[in-house]
Amino acid sequence: MSEDSLRYDKMVEDALRGVVRDALTQTAEHGLFGEHHFYITFRTRFPGVRLPGHIMVRHPDEMTIVLQHQFWGLEVDENHFEVTLSFSGVSERLYVPFAAITGFADPSAKFGLQFQVEDEEEEFEDEDLPEEIPDGDLGDDTPADTSDEGGKVIALDAFRKK
User: Do 105 and 20 contact (CB within 8 A), yes or no?
Assistant: First the structure.
């Protein structure tokens, strides 16, 4: 595409990222309503993403987080969100630019979005990863569900591009 043409595809994606931003802003201000919960998939190597090293080792390219029962300190601004989640019983702070998001879903509303992420990824070499990870350090990265309800498994295939 020539540089002098309008990038409608980028404009639409930016507008749809605004939907994610608005949903997270409302959640930060008022909490989750009813059965709403979010699956957010993002590129872990995208510039500006901040994750603890042991999480980066486990998810070197992309990861999905769930905002449902156990998340704290959700903060949202124009370009990113921050949230604290529990990984193997340890609270960890994540910083995610909206431009790093590749997918957003709210299964309770049967709503999902897929995004193309520009190839702005910084070079990330294997030597940037910790050399050794003590046994048991990686654990299960899924936030624990402390509700009295039974767990639900939701396939995200319905929200993925085919």
Answer: no
DSSP H helices, 33-84, are 53-58
| DSSP 8-state class, residue 9 | H
In one letter, which amino acid is 10? K
96: nearest Cα among 30, 46, 25:
46
CATH code for position 25: 2.30.30.220
Number of domains, the chain: 1
Residue 95 belongs to what domain range? 8-122
Tokens, residue 45 = 């190597």
Paired residues of 64 in beta bridges = 41
Helix count and strand count (H, E) for the chain: 2, 7
Q: Tokens in use for 151?
A: 């767990």
The whole-angstrom separation of Cα 23 and Cα 71 is 15
Q: Which pair of tokens denotes residue 142? A: 């899924």
Are the C-beta atoms of 79 and 118 separated by less than 8 Å?
no
pLDDT along the chain (162 residues), means of 10: 79 94 96 93 96 92 94 95 92 96 95 82 43 38 39 47 52
Residues 84, 91: Cα–Cα separation, whole Å: 6
Question: pTM to 2 decimals?
Answer: 0.71
